[in-house]
Amino acid sequence: MAVLVDSNTKVVVQGITGREGSFHTSEMLKYGTNIVAGVTPGKGGTKVAGIPVYNSIREAITAHPEITASIVFVPAEYASDAIYESIDEGINLIVVVTEHIPVHETLRFVIYSKYRESIIVGPNTPGVISPGKAKVGIMPARYFTPGTIGIISRSGTLMYEVSWQLAKHGLGVSTAIGLGGDPVTGLNFIEAMEFFEEDDETEVVILIGEIGGKQEEIFAKAYLRGKFSKPVIAFIAGRSAPPGKKMGHAGAIIMREQGTFTSKVKSLLNSGILVAEKLSDIPKLVGKVLKSVKM
Amino acid sequence: MILHEYEARNLFLRYGIKVEDACLADSPDKAKECCRNVPAPYIVKAQVRVWSRGKLGLIKTADTPREVYRVAKDMLSKKFKGRNIDKILISHRVKTKRELYLSILLDRDSRSYTIMAGTLGGVDIEDIAKSYPESILQINVNPLIGLNPYVARYLSSHLKVDKESIWNLVGNMYRLFIDNYCELVEVNPLVLSGNELIAVDRKIVIDDSAARIYSHLRGFWEQYLEELTKEERLSIIHGFSYVELEGNIGIVGNGAGLTMTSMDLIYLEGGRPGAFLDLGGGANAERVRIALEILMKNPRIEIIFVNILGGITRCDEVARGIVSLVSKYRKPIVVRLAGLRENEGRKILENAGIKVFSQLQEAIREVVYYGSTGG
Predict the structure, then answer these.
(1) CB B309 to CB A142 under 8 A?
(2) Of B125, B213, B253, the CB nearest to A77
(3) Least confident segment among A24-33, A61-70, B49-58
(4) Can you tell me whether residue B220 is helix, strand or coil?
(5) What pLDDT digit, counting tens, does each position of A222-242 carry?
(6) Which range is least confidently modeled, A91-100, A249-258, B240-249?
(7) Is B123 on the interface with A (CB under 8 A)?
(8) By the CB < 8 Å criterion, does A111 face chain B?
(9) Which is nearest to B200 in space by CA: B181, B187, B211?
(10) DSSP secondary structure string, B38-100?
């Protein structure tokens, strides 16, 4: 098993002819990801790393009806348009790597995707990897080994770091999902956890959060209500960061004193979730939890 | 990016929102001249991008042109956060029946817009929310749907104002909010003068990502960049996130989470972080060099910790960049580097006497030790 992506996932790369798009297409192919097509308007008929390029998602799907997922490298100015095209053409999973997409645009395509039942991962995400099976993303493969631990992370490099530390202790990952570093993202912690909850292979989930927003608190509340049965271990970055006031007083009212390091750790602990103080504590905690799961 | 108040005022005017008479000045003489077109009494406001100007003494009242001159002279001779205050807004102090509060903001967690209306405006709305929570009404707006007419009924009955006037106002604010990719549009106070609603002071926050790419926002963006220090401007152009802190250890990392975690670990080990620089995506040699130079030039920073966990980063190139800077600035540096050609990179650094670690925890201990012994 694994969630979201595996060796059966058939991928189209949007923005395949760009520098990032073409480089990561080769990297994903090397990893064994099943990439079947690329799209760049105006570049149809060419090839990148042996993969045929089409002018539109519709042309790509006509030639390759097996396509189930898209990964988006299109620059911020044109990214929303590319994402709507994929949603409207019925692609189930859309991984948005692009950084700096205006948040109003993200908000709109994220809401729209729920209505059309497409799953959006990102924007500003390293993507999704199911080690040993496939990666639909830009993460360096060397830090990930196969196993039974699910990872959900807001931060990209922290996801690599945690997976690497697990690997050094002989622990591996079923799937790692980068939610993306933007204020609004497609998948959030709860939605990502729903996939792991259903996955036979995943025994424990690591949640990597950071200060800002209140998604960690919202997750903790759902966990406390008994929405999930699998054990979760959390790590929150930003304990030493000075408080920001990006949205001023109105923002503070909306937040209701949530979003800080203390608030997040407190609500996670309250819900029975283990919280690692340091990154290096995570493998120990995972070991402990796995032992109790197996008993 | 927080807009200047005068920029926000111009946008309000453009969207047909009634504002007070006002005039922008950059000298005491110009301020006095402003008084010919703006009726007394006055309120003089420093144009700086910050919250709660009143509490910081950046808003003063004046009754006569002479007093305006004096206040202007004083204000324009001051600095705020290291920058001269170079513009002030001379506004007419509007006679008022009641002061209200109205804002629209983007709420990331509920994936919607939120309208916030308060019956007690003109003061710190966060304090009011604590003491009189019932004075604030919140209405969520679905970004795909927009405003429905019931919003006007709710606002009108909560704020006790005419339904048509508030519908006009909130509609115009909403158009402004959407067209200009705002994270926040706020009026505080919204003044009821006679039967008219006047937006007397306002705040607008625009999404930086939109300001970067859309030409109708370019004017605001360029003005903003112009006011930054050279280091801050470099950071923004290269997509870094740079925050200055109190201590002596500078931290460079790729990715906000990893850089923040490095900072947390230094803090947990007893070190004092002095600057935080997240390179963002794409930690290539050139970007690392530019980032390091920003920290090398920061006089408070005595030691630098570089934490790069790359996939496609060429470690040998990064190492060469680091070595060239270390010989130029003579600040100690501790490196944790992983990526392509890691061993080559390590050799280059070690030959230059720079300590390289692959384990994060060991690197942190070394940095904190250096930091506490003064290098």
Answers:
(1) no
(2) B213
(3) B49-58
(4) helix
(5) 999 999 999 999 999 999 887
(6) A249-258
(7) no
(8) yes
(9) B187
(10) SPSSEEEEE--S-S-TTTTT-EEEESSHHHHHHHHHHHHT-EETTEE---EEEEE----SEEE
- Please give the C-alpha separations between residue A167 and each of A128, A148, A284, B233, B340, in angstroms, as whole numbers: 18, 12, 12, 40, 19
Contact between chains at B276 and A241 (C-beta distance less than 8 A): yes
- B114 touching chain A per CB within 8 A: yes
On the question of a cis peptide bond just before residue B41, with omega within 30 degrees of 0, the verdict is yes
Position A60 scores a pLDDT of 98
- DSSP state for residue B341 in the 8-state scheme: T
Contact A103 B106 (CB under 8 A): yes
Active site residues of A: 249
Kindly report, residue by residue over A93-136, the tens digit of the pLDDT: 999 999 999 999 999 999 999 999 999 999 999 999 999 999 99
Element (DSSP H or E) covering residue B31 = helix B28-34
pLDDT in tens, A24-49: 999 999 999 999 999 999 999 999 99
At residue B97, φ and ψ (nearest 5 deg) are -85, -45
Least CB-CB distance to A253: which of B116, B214, B264?
B116
**CATH code, B21-92:** 3.30.1490.20
CATH 3.30.470.20 residue ranges of chain B are: 98-212
Nearest CA in chain A to B207: A102
Report the pLDDT value the prediction gives residue A79, as an integer from 0 to 100. Answer: 98
Judge: A238–B260 Cβ closer than 8 Å, yes or no: yes
User: Which tokens in the block code for residue B244?
Assistant: 């200055």
State the fold for domain B98-212.
Answer: D-amino Acid Aminotransferase; Chain A, domain 1 (3.30.470)
Query: Is the interface score ipTM higher than 0.90?
Result: yes
Task: Report pTM.
Answer: 0.94
CB-closest option in B106, B184, B214 to A107: B106
Mention the CATH class of domain B230-373. Answer: alpha beta
Residue type, B273: P
> Of B200, B208, B115, nearest to B159 (Cα)?
B115
